[in-house]
Amino acid sequence: MSRNNIKEEKTYTCDVAVTGAGPAGLMAAIMAAREGAGVIVLERNDRPLKKLYATGNGRCNFSNLNMERGVYRGSDPEYAMTIVDYYDRNDLLLFFHNLGMMTRHIGDYIYPYNEQARTVADVLLLECRRLDISIFCEEMVVDIIPNPDCFTVRTHSSRYRCKKVIAAAGGKASPAHGSDGNLNHIITGMGHTMVRQRAALVPLMFEDKKLSKLAGVRVKCSVRLTIDGLNASQERGEIIINKDNISGIPIMQMSRYATAAFPDGRRVTVHINLFPDETEEEMREFISRAFKGEYDPERRSDIRKDRNAHEALSLCLNEKLAEYCLGVAGIIPRSLAGNVSEKQLEKLAGILQDLRVTVTGDAGYERAQVTAGGFSVSELTDELESRKIPGLYIVGELCDVDGTCGGYNLQWAFSSGAVAGRSAAATLSC
Q1: Which long-range contacts (CB under 8 A, 24 or more apart) does 148-152 make?
Q2: What is the arithmetic mean of pLDDT over 103-125?
Q3: What is the pairing mode between strands 361-362 and 204-205?
Q4: Of 77, 210, 226, 416, which is least surrounded by CB within 10 A?
Q5: Quick one: DSSP state of residue 9?
Q6: What is the per-residue DSSP string for 338-387?
Q7: Phi, psi values for residue 359, rounded to 5°
């Protein structure tokens, strides 16, 4: 083959190479550069922060006023809190405010003041430009090679020689934005343990064709997830019934436990309490009055003769949902309300507080907001440096850390990136 037909790899040198231009990667790059390190960022997409633009429906809820224990999951949630405590919400707010980005909170959720994700992206990219951080797009990392005194990071077209590597390529959630776990096999090949990855903050699928007719129904309720009959999680809020799945914040919050059970063939059920503020006794009495009208037990003449079962239940429940629940209870919707037996009413009352939906899977990484699982944090120091490969840092969604809804995953990304970036730069001369 002629030498002229051989594509020669370009070689670059730097202090720190960051693989991935997401929130964790750019924060790591900024913090390392602020400490005086020469930094490059390698991004497989055609532009940085592609996934960030879609965060929070484009509004970018990036942190939360409530940072209590329990908002992070994984094999060691306390590890995540240690990192977030080290670079916390106030540090992140000060970071953005100093760069000129105003913020606001709606409830406990923290947003950029104009509620536009592009503002967060813009301020990060402006700071990268000020610090002279080189961001190479359309550069997918195909190998990371540790050498005695440095690393060689290879892409399809180039080699990057560096003293430190910060792996920030993200998990598998939202592959349309470039997250597909492409670094997993490289880091695993370097000796790191991967905790099985799965979708999290994701809708849960069902196959009930009658339930699918309720598509578009929203209802405020409490929900409980059981796996093989045992309680796994409980949430409260508004859920959304779609054609083949249920979603909404409560469902998304508990989905990580369901997705962990699916591969093992375990039975996963969502229990919906449509009247969570009523006791069982209050519910039975409420339904009896709605159907029978017996407000005075001594007077039997006021028993309902003016409405059918569907009309009676629709006065306190969405009409589509009312018809579905009547069907589950075996009550004919057009039957006279006053003729429904006490046994049937008792069964209906129970269903309204424990409507069970068998879920058969999740909506996949395409519709997941984050990835559960990832590289074991037990193999990382408190600065997110590998205990197996010194000089390699693993941050953001690559780690076995996932947060609940409310800005916690972005806070983790920024916190882990900040801690790793500072550490990588601080140890360059060691």
Answers
A1: 151/17, 151/391, 151/392
A2: 97
A3: antiparallel
A4: 210
A5: P
A6: GGS-HHHHHHHHHHHH-EEEEE-EE--GGG-SEEEEEE-GGGB-TTSBBS
A7: -100, 140
